[in-house]
Amino acid sequence: MRVSEYMSQPTMVADPNDGARETFFRMRAARIHHLPVLDGAQLVGILSDRDLRRPDWVDEAPDLAHPYELADDLTVGDLMTRHPISVHTYEPLDRAAAWFLQQGFGSLPVLDKGGHLVGIITKRDLIRALHDLLARQ
User: Which domains occur in the chain, in start order?
Assistant: First the structure.
């Protein structure tokens, strides 16, 4: 089982200069939790919905019902995780699973042999792979 068999593609991306608030609403509308960040064609980071919920990034919220009141001047580049770990399409799926287990990641960007972003693999994709494996037995 290879990463390429279970990765999600195409994947939505962000630019480091995109506004954090607008990006949050794009992610919410698309029902995604992780967003690779590209500067041109170069993968420079990854943004998760958890990055957007960090208390040090939000304005003073009146109560817990408003956790996403992001400051207007925050950008994706301010909030993203820089230099993300990635996997390649040709790698075995268990390598991605090992990263998830060891580091607690929720997703990994997927690169082709040339180092270009071609997709993303998430914990949900791994559950789908497990389901397929169990169904075959």
Answer: 3-136 (3.10.580.10)
